[in-house]
Write a structure and sequence with these properties.
alpha+beta, Sufe protein. Chain: A, 4 helices, 4 strands, 38% helix, 19% strand, globular, NIF_FeS_clus_asmbl_NifU_N, iron-sulfur cluster binding, Iron-sulfur cluster assembly scaffold protein, iron ion binding
């Protein structure tokens, strides 16, 4: 587990200077909203031979949703779909308080404290839900008001 001050620094860094922010021309994308707090995120993913070759996001919302999206793009870019799915599952379990953070999550561990903030769990998971909808459009169809495109 990361010390709380380090976790706050990682979250602030990704919220203030998000990585991989902006449209990824020509890539499939999904936009999801969290009406409870006003978060909105669009995730673009480019795949080649089962590998996430590029991953971008854009959106607005709280520090947690925006940092989660930025951290997600860094953690998953260059990963196979199998690896990305395993990281997603582990991240979700951590955020939901079902499993403790482990070093294999890297900087994603910074969001482990969200597990204590039930209302913020949706914020942290929103970009991951959008990514899942991009990668598996029929498996996890987005709920309105979502937009989907390619």
């Amino acid at each position: 587990m990361l010390p709380e001050t380090v976790a706050r620094e990682i979250i602030a860094s990704h919220q203030q200077r998000p990585r991989n922010r902006g449209e990824l021309q020509g890539a499939p994308h999904v936009t999801l909203d969290n009406p409870g707090c006003g978060d909105r995120v669009t995730v673009w993913a480019r795949l080649q031979d089962g590998v996430i070759t590029d991953l971008h996001f854009d959106g607005k919302g709280c520090a947690i949703s925006q940092a989660s999206a930025s951290l997600m793009t860094v953690a998953l870019k260059g990963r196979t779909l199998t690896e990305a799915s395993a990281i997603h599952a582990h991240f979700r379990q951590m955020v939901m308080g079902e499993t403790p953070p482990t070093p294999d999550l890297g900087d994603l561990m910074a969001l482990s404290g969200v597990s204590r903030l039930h209302a913020r769990r949706k914020c942290a998971l929103l970009p991951w839900r959008a990514l899942n909808a991009v990668l598996h459009p029929t498996q996890d169809a987005p709920h309105p008001p979502a937009t989907q495109g390619s």
